[in-house]
Amino acid sequence: MTVLLELDQMSKTYGALLAVDEMTLSVEEGEALAIIGPNGAGKSTMFNLITGDVQANSGQVRFRGDNITTMAPHLRARQGIGRSYQIPHPFTNMSVFENLLVGANFGGGQSQHEAYESCAEVLNITGLYDKANVMARSLTLLQRKRLELARAIATRPKLLLLDEIAGGLTEYECNELVDTIRAIHAGGTTIIWIEHIVHALLSIASRLVVMNFGKKLAEGEPHAVMNDPEVREVYMGIPAS
């Protein structure tokens, strides 16, 4: 398999707080990687380092073999890194379709003709086709989550970063969203997914990384990692026997 993303000894500090501590990680093309950890473990900061939303204090990010450590976020999007955020922030005074066009045009660098065709396909994939002309401000939480996902994949990412996209959904809504994410992955998109709803992650991921205090605590086959005594103590509060 081809390595798509590499983090090499990445660190990020905020004053005295060490948010990410010499993180080294590689992700293969076509992989679905899950990441869990307590609140404040550094998971979202790691995503911010990958997308360029924040700059590292040390270390390197390589994407498709190229060093992108100092590359601007919009250029990383053009390289093929897409991302959703924990709290959806759609352009509320635009329609759903217009929101996708922004992602396709400016994030993906697609021409107007290409963008119209690809965004129509994204509407189908994400279950938003009947909402295409609805203003984003009137969407339900599940529909906003779907729109957040749709805007990310409208850029045609090679790597899709999902940051707690299932948070706040009912179990039924979560299962619907998981089915959509599974279809996106089956289509060839590499995924890294941060989530606290573990059963959703385990239904898709082939590898699980656990973070704590900015470091990698455990890594491996998801069910084996979840049964690790140290992981159960740190993440679930179950004392090791």
- Superfamily at the CATH H level of the domain at 3-86 and 157-236? P-loop containing nucleotide triphosphate hydrolases
Main sheet properties: 6 strands, mixed
Radius of gyration: 18 Å
* Strand elements, count: 10
What's the architecture of the domain at 3-86 and 157-236 in CATH terms?
3-Layer(aba) Sandwich
- CATH C-level class of the domain at 3-86 and 157-236 is Alpha Beta
Helix content percent band: 25-40%
List low-pLDDT spans.
none
Give the overall shape. Answer: globular
How many helices in DSSP terms? 9
Mean pLDDT: 94
Strand fraction equals 25-35%
| SSE succession | EEEHEEHEHHHEHEHEEHH
Lateral arrangement of strands in the main beta sheet: 6-7-8-3-9-10
Query: Per CATH, what is the topology of the domain at 3-86 and 157-236?
Result: Rossmann fold
Q: What structural class results from the helix and strand content?
A: alpha/beta
Q: Distance between termini?
A: 39 Å
Describe the structure in your own words:
- The chain has helices spanning 43-51, 73-79, 96-107, 112-125, 141-153, 171-186, 198-202, 222-226, 229-236; strands at residues 3-14, 17-28, 32-36, 58-63, 66-67, 81-83, 159-163, 190-194, 207-212, 215-220.
- By secondary structure, it is α/β, with parallel strands linked by helices.
- The strands form 2 sheets. A 6-stranded mixed beta sheet has the order 6-7-8-3-9-10, sandwiched between helices. A 4-stranded antiparallel beta sheet has the order 2-1-4-5, covered by helices on one side.
- β9 (207-212) and β10 (215-220) form a beta hairpin.
- The protein is globular and about 55 Å long.
